[in-house]
């Protein structure tokens, strides 16, 4: 037997063993290594140019343990709901059908490409990022030896999907970067910054000069880390994370430049495939965020050529002539981006990279959650004929394709329930009482669990300002049993953090529990933040979404000029314009914080959400 024949046989045998192992675990995967097997299979399929099949395996590799919890939660909620409604009535039949659909979203079946993505709103861009640990790091991630985040970064597989029936689908492998930070890992550097930040918040409150000096150091270190994430690790591939353009004039400019590039390539006897055209359009859309070196590297990779090729010279020359026009796209309005992040890299502040700093960005643990939430909140539309709006059975509100709409008048707030944040209560209580009144929330008192449950099931917004995520007052295992209607805004330390009890399990936390309970979205903090800076963010967010404080009234009362803080509470003055889209409002509120650490901590989970006009709802 020749060496090549023996090698081929070994390859086929290993492939058969992998397929059989996946098949054995498929119906009820209890092994934590199931996701590792799926990723290995996906990598093989990608190398065989079976991109759709490879992506299907990556989708199923995310949140295996959490999907078990979701199946159980939906089953228990179905029993409870069906026991209250008559299964023979029209409402009972509809409830049964909806519950069955939601239950199927998390079921373990053979990996198939999620064709329901084509029925998502065409404005949305879904970016699915999977981590692939290699060699020794892979073993360490499975529990053998020290954790890999101390030593290296994983290889990434980024899949970008643009919604709608004509949506594009791109995939890209990003290898482990060489060189970079002194300790070798963005993840290790982030952990060091956050640990030092905790020490400063705990031990240096009495020494204000040293406190602010160390805070500034952490501020600068995190900015370097975010820049390294964007330009060192992602390089030109960061264009995959960029949202689609909103305004027709910007789209027209992008299409015109793309057409000119394709015409130029055809003149030089170079045909362009559909994937190459999609990549070129992305690169052009991202042109103002790329250095010249990054842009050229992108062209070389996309066109699979070398820098000495006359085609590259012609293209670079052309882009010099249109550079002033393309600079306009740097400030262009973008449509929402939904990030699906794997269990280790979700710790990083992806939303704070320069390219995404003004883009509406949301996170979601896996595509199974996205499927479930869009079904529940009626955002799925027929592929062939997608209506511009749908009706929500929960709120009877019209839902535009851009996202879920919530009524800001249907709100409940819990402020300083632990009675140990008097400054927070002093700063926020007058504002919250002005917006919603004294009877729509609690200030400085411990809430009863039933009060929180009722507000989550009957209101559209739930605002919590205190320590952590508020799980002290409503435990997470009680939360996931609810049928949540509200969008929680949890302004507490690490309220949006996902943590894992070990290396081989999925990270979980308040965001997972709220999404399991059916909330359309959640706003929280990735790590520990200071109360004053967090309050600045909270007030700016409420100003943008609701017009919490009228600029003219505040200036008259405090005699404070525009864009200056008030001396009394150290809060920012109101913005010039309202921003009803939650994702955009969060992006605009981040820079108002004094420390980059606080702004970078703010993240949104779930679907794009929009608040209705506060005054029109009142009337």
Automatic annotation (TrEMBL):
GO process annotations (BP): meiotic chromosome separation; proteolysis
InterPro entries listed in its UniProt record: Peptidase_C50, SEPARIN_core_dom
Ranges in a coiled coil: none
Keywords: Chromosome partition, Hydrolase
GO CC terms in record: cytoplasm; mitotic spindle; nucleus
An annotated Gene Ontology molecular function: cysteine-type endopeptidase activity
Keyword Hydrolase: yes
Ranges of residues in domain Peptidase C50: 408-504
Ranges of biased composition (kind: Polar residues): 557-570
Annotated EC: 3.4.22.49
Enzyme type, top EC level: hydrolase
Pfam families per UniProt: Separin_C
Region (Disordered): 553-576
Catalytic activity: All bonds known to be hydrolyzed by this endopeptidase have arginine in P1 and an acidic residue in P4. P6 is often occupied by an acidic residue or by a hydroxy-amino-acid residue, the phosphorylation of which enhances cleavage
Superkingdom of this protein's organism: Eukaryota
Protein name: separase
